[in-house]
Amino acid sequence: MNHRIAFLVCCLALAPALVQGATNSIANPGFDADLGQWAPTFGSEPMLSWSGVDELGHASGSVRFAALPVSLVVAIDSLCFPVTAGADLAFGASFWTSGASNQGGVMLTQIRLYDGAGCTGSSQTFNNDLSPYFSSSSTWRPLQGHTQAGPAVQSGHLRLSFVGTAPPEEVRFDNAFVYEDATCVSTSTVSCLGQRFRVAIEWAIPEGTRGGALVRPFSSDSLYASFFNPTNVEVVLKVLDGCSVNDRFWVFAAGLTNVHAVLRITDTRTGATWTHLNPQDEAFAPVQDTSAFATCEE
């Protein structure tokens, strides 16, 4: 079926999966009732408000930036939180935009790590490496990154921001997180296969609307994805350990669609990435890449 209309997926029944046995370092990560525990950066206050629109259709909320002027960075910061020196840190959030007509900006989640307690002392900032194309969207989409705290790090905070010269009508962020001892976090639009391979899929239609596919694992190395309707499977994908055969991890994928789709897989241990594009109006051809990741020794 050739999908020409993007349906607004407003009431998802898929909550972000917590990292098992771990605690989210962010206070009020889902903006449940207000913006409490978050502080706008200087100059962002007039554009900032709480919104009752939630990523997952729950009785919750999100942070909203609107009436954005040209050439301005707007951002909101989490409370400072303690960080264990040397720990792996997976961080991110979800975003939604309205009225974006060009590519004049980026959404960012940034983690700033400090050598002193209480976010004092020298610091370093790390950006998300999963950063979807920003244009108008009918679904929420993921931002996610991974870094490792240095040997002297004691604390940090997370920043959610929009940077650019051509702002959309509004930007919303929701479900922020920082997890220690993790390199990937599974959410409604991100799946972590083999506890190291981060998978995200983005779709687009000719009218210019893009969205993040809903991804759901059905085994430790396999998932299925839907675009416009959570019950309509569009792509099936798996990452297999072929290290004993040819010293590679393999990627296999199949599609039941002719919609423009970009599959992105990141080996979060090494930063190596694999991408596959299915063009608009072309039947999704099977993928059998037995040389996808040469990262077996890592």
Write the layout of secondary structure elements.
Layout: E1 38-40, E2 48-51, E3 62-66, E4 74-78, E5 81-82, E6 88-98, E7 105-116, E8 120-127, E9 141-148, E10 155-164, E11 170-180, E12 191-193, E13 197-204, E14 210-212, E15 214-219, E16 222-226, E17 233-242, H1 243-246, E18 248-255, E19 260-267, E20 273-278, E21 287-293
Antiparallel strand pairs: 1-4, 2-3, 3-11, 4-10, 5-10, 6-9, 6-11, 7-8, 7-10, 12-13, 13-14, 13-19, 15-16, 16-17, 17-18, 18-21, 19-20
Structure description:
- It is a single chain.
- The protein is an all-beta fold and 298 residues long.
- It has two domains: 32-182, Jelly Rolls (Sandwich), CATH 2.60.120; 184-298, no CATH class.
- It is 1% helix and 48% strand.
- It has one helix at 243-246; strands at residues 38-40, 48-51, 62-66, 74-78, 81-82, 88-98, 105-116, 120-127, 141-148, 155-164, 170-180, 191-193, 197-204, 210-212, 214-219, 222-226, 233-242, 248-255, 260-267, 273-278, 287-293.
- Strands 1, 4, 5, 7, 8 and 10 form a six-stranded antiparallel β-sheet that branches. The protein has a five-stranded antiparallel β-sheet with strand order 2-3-11-6-9, with no helix packed on it. Strands 12, 13, 14, 19 and 20 form a five-stranded antiparallel β-sheet that branches.
- A hairpin with a 3-residue loop joins strand 7 and strand 8.
